[in-house]
Amino acid sequence: MNRRQPIEKVKITHLINKYLRIRAYSTALCANLQVEDYTVQPIADVSPPKWHLGHTTWFFEEVILVKHMADYTRFHQGYRMLFNSYYKSAGEHWLQSQRGDLSRPTVDEVIDYRSYVDKQVVDFLSLANVDESVLSLLEIGLHHEQQHQELLLMDIKYILGCNPLSPVYCDQALDTILTLEKAQWCTFDEGVYEVGAIDSGFAYDNEKPRHKIYNYAFAISENTITNGEYLAFIQDGGYDRAEFWLSLGWEWLTDKKIAHPLYWKKIGKEWFEFTLHGLMPLDLNLPVTHVSYFEADAFASWKGVRLPIEQELEIYLSASSACTVTPDSKKRSDNKTSMYHPVASDAHFGQVWCWTKSHYSGYPGYKPYQGMLNEYNGKFMCNQFVLKGGCVATPSDHYRHSYRNFYQPHQRWMFSGIRLAKDIE
């Protein structure tokens, strides 16, 4: 009779397998690239794929191996600075805007770096008496890697989208879903609700603590806004009518000569959209994506409604599918994804990150991570807006309804879309 392994050994084995699976997926996302694609950086916001592969490795090396593995030797001393993103406590770092200036290290050298660190992490977990604090850091590191997997797809899309040849990342045909039904509104009673991360399961520090809020009655659209609906806004002169735009948004629009969502292109009289599946005729039924906060807010103003606040959107995401929802409604689960582009405007989450009206800041009682990871989230709580709901590029086991994504109001290279809200009088 085989004796059961101690629970600690089973847990470590599970973590090792999870670690290797997540790390392998990052390199798999780059399998369709050519070596020339790995170093391109069209704008400061976009990092070269090679840098993502190096930085996620740097995280495990600096946060876990250097600090907790006795006699650990770094793969390359220069990588400590080169692949540091913004952690001032970890020392000097290379400027984000200059990541694409470096032809070295080569792609092969970065892959070797990943292999070296992966072996050291697995050996460390297998042989050392690892305590819970280190395992907690490992879990943060894995979710950090999954964040960068989404960023990889965002950045790869921007890199390829800047090329007039419209290179194809995935040559499999996009499996579109027709959604022609009239949008429905889901209403919520006035009352006390709970928002924020639950105690069980992983969550970042900015999702905590879970807390009660009082909300007046409101409604949220069951559908995200489609390309067709947004095209109607454009055709009605939406980008030429200042009354719909925030002052800063109008300045951004006029200064940058913005006239349509990112990746839309008009050829002759026809609209097209660049996707990771290539340049395709604009499908009016697909969710509009790659819009800024300024554009989302202007569209809502044009429709005579508003964007939701983040608490309303989290309540909606966590609610049942019943049309009228009360504060104690049960959690819903609904996640339609297909390939590398949003296709289902009727999905409740997992298609496009939806902008909210809420400025990104800490919850009441917010406590940031300690040590070097103190800089992970808290330092960005200024001049950014919260998005919720996940997208097609978000790994499914990384997402949760309490997740708080955040971007500056002009940014739109992420898979960002629009879900509308309104007050109930």
Verbal overview:
This protein has nine helices and 13 strands. The strands form four sheets. It has a four-stranded mixed β-sheet, covered by helices on one side. The protein has a four-stranded mixed β-sheet with strand order 11-10-9-12. The chain has a three-stranded antiparallel β-sheet with strand order 5-6-7, with no helix packed on it. Helix 1 runs antiparallel to helix 4. With 425 residues, the protein is an alpha+beta fold. It has helices at residues 7-29, 49-68, 79-82, 107-127, 132-161, 227-235, 247-256, 293-303, 310-317, and strands at 185-188, 191-195, 211-215, 218-221, 264-267, 270-275, 278-281, 324-325, 353-359, 385-388, 405-407, 416-417, 421-423. Mean pLDDT is 92; it is low at 1-7 and 328-338. It comes from Pseudoalteromonas luteoviolacea S4054. Residues 21-151 form the DinB-like domain. Keywords: Iron, Oxidoreductase. Pathway: Amino-acid biosynthesis; ergothioneine biosynthesis.
